[in-house]
Structures are given as C-alpha cells and as structure tokens.
Amino acid sequence: MSQDGATAMDWKKDGQSTNSTGNGMGNCVRNGSNGVVYPPYASHRLRLNPSVDHKPDNYDDLQLDFSPLLFSSLERYLPPALLNSSRDQKVHFMREILLRYFPEGERTRVQKHREYRQKIISNYQPLHRELYTMHAQNFFVPSFLKAISENSEESFRNIMSEPSPGVFTFEMLQPRFCEMLLAEVENFERWVRETKFRIMRPNTMNRFGAVLDDFGLDAMLEKLMEDFIRPISRVFFTEVGGSTLDSHHGFVVEYGMDRDVDLGFHVDDSEVTLNVCLGKQFSGGELFFRGVRCEKHVNVETQPEEIFDYAHTVGRAVLHRGRHRHGARATTSGQRINLLLWCRSSVFREIRKHQKDTSSWCAECQRNKKERQRQAVAATKLELLKRGSSAI
Ligand SMILES: [Zn+2]
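^ thats the input. predicted complex w/ zinc ion below
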C-alpha cells in the first residue's frame, strides 16, 4: 500500500503555485540560516474582527508572492489606522504577516514550479487551442450537461450508476473531445522529446503521463472542477469537503506495453477523484476498489462487500473519494490513456486537523463505532436485567 507521499508534494506545488504571482518585493530583512527576521512590524497584529464596511484595494496588477485576493481579503483585518494608508504600505505590512506562515523553503519550491510552468507555456505551441477554455457544449455529452444544469440529486442519479457504495460512473466526454485531448497530449510529448525538455511526471507511481496543468490546461480544468465536479460532489461527498473543493491536480496516465503496465493499490492525495478513460483500444486495465479508509486504517483488510472491479469504457467517468483504496490491473494489450482530476478542499483539510471522528467516511471507523455502540447497548441490557432480577 502506498500513500503516494511524493505525489502529495507535487500536488502541493501545483495547488499553491496558482496562489503566487511573481517574485517577492524583497524588502524584508533576512537572517541567513535562521530564516526571516521581521523587525519593522513584528509587534503589529491584525484585528480580530474585520472592518466590514471597508472597501479593500485591488492588488491584481502587482507582482506579489501571494495571491492578490489574499491581500484584498486580509485588508479588512488591518489596524484601522492603516486602512487608508497607501497600497504599498498595506502590502508591506500584510506581506510581513503572511511570511510568518509560509516557510521559505516552500516559497522557493512554489516559485521554481511557477518558472517551470512558464518555461513550458512560453515555448510549447498547442495543437487544439479550443481545449484550453471550457466549451461545455463541445466537451460533454448532452445527458451530462442536462443533469448539471438541473443540479439536483435526482438529476445526477438519473445519469449515474453506483455499482459499489461511493463509486459513481456516468457518461461524460464526447468522443471528439477525447480524441482532441489525446492528440494534444501526443503533441506535447512530441515537443518534450524534440526539445529534450525534462518534464515532471504526474506522481510517484506513474513513469508515463503528463500534468495537464503544466502546459496550460489548468484554467479549463479548474472550471471543470468548479462548475461540474463540485455540484456533484456537494451531493455525494459532502462529508469529505465535496461542497468546498477549491483546487485541483489534472493529469493523464498512459498504460500499455511500452508504458506503465499496472498501478498498485493506493489512495489519492485528493478529496474527490475524477477518472475518465480517453482511449484508445485496449484490453485489461480494470480499476479495482477496496473500501474507503482514513490514514489510521489505510492497511486494514478489505471486507468482501468492498471488493469492486470496474472496466473502463471511453468517455465514461468514474467519481470516487480520494481515500477510496484502488489500483489498476495490467493493460494486457493496446494503449489506455486516462484523464485524472484530483479535487481537493483546503477547508476540509483544515478541519481534518482538529477532527478525531472520521466515521462519516472511513468504513473501518464506521464498523468500530457500530461495534462500540453494540457493546454499549448489550452492557446496558445486561445492567437492566441485573437490576430487574435483584428487584424481584
Ligand atoms: Zn478509520
């Protein structure tokens, strides 16, 4: 069982790189090996309650190492005296505060990954530009579009099947979209070969495949998550942050004779995973599921009712919790390429740090909880029986 740790690291880079937009202002005082020292504002603090009537500045045009939105939101928490000072002064103050919470090593990594992406995007010529912005009518099958526009549990259930609890499958992508995306990925890989560009693979477990976000598809995939996957996840995966999905990692994996053959049993670094087969012709490559588990129970044995195998068909999506243990059987002939979208919720991850009870989604925690309840009921019955007999 692999927890796919390095995948988590790669993912983090992706998730956070969208929040950092450029080089730092370089105006803080650094103390070499000991990190950053903040003499000017060390004593300054934010207010506990925001100044709700204050209209924050816009920071979009500045080259900052944190998201401009973060500055706008934080501005309401500034000490009142600072609210009407210059934008530069406010930025300086807020950045000093933010730097305390974002370690330097992490910032360097984010910056490196940003540069890596920019290098690709400024050199790579896309084949199908229409893939890079969301064109729902051209991408999705009509039944899927209809269900999303109706946006109810009933409309989703109408197009979905749930062959095993927590595993949802439905027709999603038009054949033409699948072909175009496959051609785009091939085009990208040709470019990588020709230019000998060293690319990062999607995760630690796949030696082949490409991160779609790295060559410009991140905006389209973000839209796919926000407008299509989040509405469904809000209904079916609420207890793992389905309604607050706020970042993604989008990539393709390639299986076949001269590619990866299979994929071991693992969990994803996501709250919700979308997995859609794009093609081509293949046999084998079934996706197998073995129950949802929290970190503590990730290696606990599978119950018979948790065993489920799914055979991919082109254009059909599978949606499941990231903690739903799974793997891919060997693709025995041909070539299989799947689109993966790992959707993550920062809110859920923050809550998880303080939450002990994971029985709302971990099957093992659930079984343990039921067993404890059963024992408690049995003990109470016994106690009542004793009291009853002593009363007689
Ligand atoms: Zn558990």
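The radius of gyration is 25 Å.
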